[in-house]
Design brief:
Elements lengths: L5 H21 L15 H4 L4 H7 L3 E12 L4 H4 L1 H7 L10 E13 L5 E4 L1 H4 L4 E5 L5 E3 L1 E6 L4 E5 L23 E6 L7 E12 L10 E4 L11 E4 L4 E8 L10 E5 H12 L11 E5 L2 H7 L7 E6 L4 H5 L6 E5 L2 E2 L3 H9 L6 E8 L2 E8 L12 E2 L9 E5 L2 H6 L9 E6 L4 H4 L7 E5 L2 E2 L3 H9 L3 E8 L2 E8 L1
Antiparallel strand pairs: 1-2, 1-4, 2-3, 3-7, 4-5, 6-7, 8-9, 8-11, 9-10, 10-13, 11-12, 12-13, 14-15, 15-16, 16-17, 16-18, 18-19, 20-21, 21-22, 22-23, 23-24, 23-25, 25-26
Length: 480
């Protein structure tokens, strides 16, 4: 059995004493003053998180960023499109773009003695200069190693000096339970390093809508602007999450904060150490969350799990022996409640090897092993800018593949041609095409690749363009 660290022993002991005192004060029967228990030591009187803070706080840093932004004059007249049409973009001194330095701040956590620092992607996004300041006021320039918008995590690197760097140890976030005490450490509102306490309010929050891999620890420890990228630590002083967002109507904490679990943090750190490129395993199937109605039809005792609707030929799910109609209920013995939690569980694994799944099939349980494969980029994306006198001129198109579909968060969009960008002022913009549109056919001829698209759109002087947007198929007819 693992020995409980001394800060935790102190906390438990003090908490037990509080229960005894509460029972003595308002218990089952009136108690005389002489029957009350007198604390026998300072440790029994004082419940303090100070030992935990001393262990964890030195590894929590402040992050300052600078970004040069270009802006036009403030006068509305010079931003008016009609004015610029007649007088040009650079009319007069006041119409010229000016540069302004934008400063922002956040928090981070040192996770490696070689100088790796974890923070949020949104803390350093677009920064031209990043500086890391330790709690002892040592200051370092930082280099961006990896930034992942989909998980809202980023890894920075600083050069350790002879004094060395304080480091925090990661804890398995699956060990957490609702009600566990936690501390949030960061730099709220730029006032300097601050510690707040609370409990784990909920686990596996998948509906927060903060990132593509939403699977958050919710806490009532006060988290405010500037806390982003800071540490959520448990009573043994280990890192269990990276504070990321709050739910607030006023901009300040109302006791609903979210942290990215350390399991996801660990996988991003591994990618940073492995060359700075994130490669995640994929499922190889399209599924849907099992509702109460569906659960009853499948004979499951309660809702939850993911119903397999479509398999990618030769993909990991098909190789594992999964079938359409199976319901995935656990990944590596961890319960799966919906599609988001399933994707999170698989994304925290490292490609190579396999992971056990428990599935519900024919009103009984079965176990399979899902190969942990990276999604293939087949066919190659062959990104092309469309030019010429046609409605799609100015659009950037690419061949869809499992890899690109995962990158764009388009489950099941494994083939076809997608528009990834629409140039400003182009015919494609005027005809209201958007990034994410999947072109299915031109004049009823199927579009399989970007070469097909170019050939078909350039060989006609009128176009019937069939495309899919947000699951809905639309046909647009355009004459030259």
């Amino acid at each position: 059995m693992e020995t409980m660290p001394s800060p935790a022993k102190t906390a438990v002991k003090a908490f037990a004493l509080l229960l005894v005192l509460a029972g003595a004060a308002g218990g089952l029967a009136p108690a005389a003053a002489q029957d009350r228990v007198t604390p026998g030591s300072r440790d029994e009187v004082m419940l303090s998180f100070a030992p935990v803070v001393k262990k964890a706080a030195p590894a929590v840093v402040n992050i300052y960023t600078k970004k040069v932004v270009r802006q036009r004059a403030v006068a509305p007249l010079f931003n008016d499109p009609l004015f610029r049409r007649f007088f040009g973009d650079d009319f007069g001194f006041l119409g010229r773009p000016r540069e302004r330095v934008q400063n922002s701040l956040g928090s981070g956590v040192i996770v490696d003695a070689d100088g790796l620092v974890v923070t949020n992607h949104h803390v350093i996004e677009g920064a031209d200069e990043i500086r890391v300041v330790l709690s002892d006021l040592r200051e370092y320039p930082a280099e961006l190693v990896l930034s992942d918008e989909r998980t809202d995590l980023a890894i920075l690197s600083i050069e350790p000096t002879q004094e060395g760097l304080p480091v925090i140890t990661l804890r398995d976030s699956d060990d957490l339970e609702v009600g566990d005490l936690v501390l949030a450490i960061g730099n709220p509102f730029g006032v300097g390093q601050t510690v707040t306490s609370g409990i784990v309010s909920a686990l596996a929050r998948t509906q927060a809508g903060i990132s593509d891999y939403s699977f958050f620890i919710q806490t009532d420890a006060a988290i405010n602007p500037g806390n982003s990228g800071g540490a959520l630590v448990t009573m043994d002083g280990r890192l269990v999450g990276i504070n990321t967002a709050i739910y607030s109507r006023s901009g300040g904490s109302i006791g609903i904060g979210f942290a990215i679990p350390s399991d996801m943090v660990r996988s991003v750190i591994a990618s940073a150490k492995g060359g700075g490129r994130i490669v995640r395993p994929w499922l190889g199937f399209v599924g849907q969350t099992l509702t109460a109605e569906l659960a009853e039809g499948f004979g499951l005792p309660k809702p939850g799990g993911v119903l397999v609707n479509e398999l990618y030929p030769g993909g990991p799910a098909e190789r594992a022996g999964l079938k359409v109609g199976d319901v995935v209920v656990t990944v590596d013995d961890q319960t799966v409640n919906d599609v988001t939690s399933l994707r999170f569980r698989v994304a925290t694994e490292v490609p190579g090897g396999d992971v056990p799944l428990e599935v519900w099939r024919n009103r009984g349980k079965a176990r399979v092993r899902l190969p942990l494969m990276a999604p293939p980029e087949t066919p190659p994306r062959e990104t092309r800018l469309l030019r010429g006198r046609h409605p799609l001129s100015g659009a950037v198109a690419a061949n869809l593949s499992p890899a690109l579909a995962e990158e764009l968060d388009l489950p099941g969009a494994w083939a076809g041609v997608i528009l990834t960008e629409i140039k400003r002022g182009s015919p494609a913009r005027r005809f209201r095409f958007r990034p994410g549109d999947v072109i299915l056919s031109i004049n009823e001829a199927e579009v399989g690749t970007t070469l097909d698209l170019i050939r078909l759109v350039e060989s006609s002087d009128s176009w019937a363009i069939t495309f899919r947007r947000a699951g809905r198929v639309t046909v647009v007819r355009i004459a030259a």
